[in-house]
Design goal:
The chain has four helices and five strands, in the order αααββββαβ. The protein has helices spanning about 1-50, 50-55, 80-90, 175; strands at about 90-95, 105-110, 140-145, 160-170, 185-195.
Length: about 200
């Protein structure tokens, strides 16, 4: 009987440590999943940016937007802006009646998979640096920054970098340990060349 009571006491002492270890392993799995999804989304954004010269004028079925009849989807930019193209590669939303991307439309596809698709509201800094501390939503930036005006396009063959920053919030540990409330910033930078 003494051995049985001793075993129960040892189990009671070890159970919190085993539970914390199990929760830590699950959290690590979620973190690795988030890292893979952010890497994938950054590659999608870099691919879209590299093809910007060919995809800037998005064509609708009724040919509302074309090189011959461009619409301004951003101030002083014929067609889509590069930032709109990159954002749509990560989080594809429905287009408005003119074929321009919307910021509040229904989400058609998310390259972030099952991660929270909330986009950050702060503007990307120049030069781009990932935010730190407590912030909400992912943010993407381009280095060197390129702002289109009129019909000016990026020069083919020029190298640039897309950096995606995602604030991962621990799912299980933040519930158990309140000091884990701040996000862990996951960032992925992908180099690309603008295509002709």
């Amino acid at each position: 009987m003494i051995h049985r009571a001793q075993s129960l006491t040892e189990l009671a002492l070890l159970m919190p440590l085993l539970t914390l270890l199990l929760v830590g392993l699950l959290e690590l799995g979620f973190l690795l999943y988030a890292h893979v999804e952010v890497s994938s989304a950054a590659r999608e954004a870099a691919r879209a940016a590299s093809l910007y010269r060919a995809t800037r004028y998005n064509s609708l079925a009724n040919n509302e937007i074309s090189k011959a009849n461009p619409k301004n989807c951003a101030p002083a930019i014929a067609g889509w802006s590069l930032q709109q193209t990159i954002d749509q590669a990560i989080l594809r939303r429905t287009l408005d009646g003119s074929g321009c991307p919307t910021t509040g439309g229904a989400i058609v596809f998310s390259a972030l998979g099952l991660l929270d698709s909330t986009q950050g509201t702060s503007a990307a800094s120049t030069p781009f640096v990932c935010p730190s501390g407590n912030a909400n939503g992912w943010i993407v930036g381009l280095t060197p920054a390129f702002t289109a005006t009129g019909t000016v396009m990026p020069t083919p063959g020029v190298q640039a970098t897309v950096t995606l920053c995602y604030p991962y919030r621990p799912i299980l540990l933040s519930e158990l340990l309140p000091f884990f409330d701040d996000p862990v910033w996951i960032s992925k930078a992908v180099n690309f060349l603008y295509q002709p």
